[in-house]
Amino acid sequence: MEEHLNIRLLLRGHRKLTLTDAGRSYVASCRRIMEDIAEAERTAAGEYPTHRGELPISVPQVMARIHVMLVVAEFLRTYPDVRRRVQLNDRNVNLLDEDVERALRIGKLPDSSIIAVRVASIR
């Protein structure tokens, strides 16, 4: 390993081996990498029962104040590891350009490739 890295990792004495500063740093880095790999494997295997990450949504201002923020607050109480990012605006946003995963809108959807689901009807 020392030859591969071109550094000295161990101090070799007659009766014991000790790590050099570079050796201690290398071992610490390897441990962090192994912990990250284990974490990635647990996540991929579905070990975590809770949702995590960020929820970026775009909602019209009036709809957000009357309906959506109550639902978002309840969602966050249920899933505290989710961070929310709510854009309050009345214009149609470009989901890809503005890094928004969900948008709630009132009215007819113009022809587009957006996947839309009707959640309610209003009069």
Layout of strands and helices, then pairs:
Layout: H1 2-5, E1 10-12, E2 17-19, H2 21-44, E3 53-59, H3 61-78, E4 82-88, E5 102-103
Parallel strand pairs: 3-4, 3-5
Antiparallel strand pairs: 1-2
Keyphrases for this structure?
3-stranded parallel beta sheet, alpha/beta, 2 domains, 123 residues, 5 strands, D-Maltodextrin-Binding Protein, domain 2
CATH class of the largest domain: Alpha Beta
Please state the oligomeric state of the protein chains shown.
Answer: single chain
In percent, how much strand structure appears in the residues?
15-25%
The termini sit apart by: 72 Å
| Count of all domains | 2
Global geometry: elongated
* Order of the strands making up the biggest sheet: 4-3-5
Low-confidence stretches: none
Structural class: alpha/beta
Report the radius of gyration as a whole number of Å: 26 Å
User: Could you give me the name of the CATH homologous superfamily of the largest domain?
Assistant: Periplasmic binding protein-like II
Number of beta-strand segments:
5
Biggest β-sheet: count, sense, barrel? 3 strands, parallel
Succession of helices and strands: HEEHEHEE
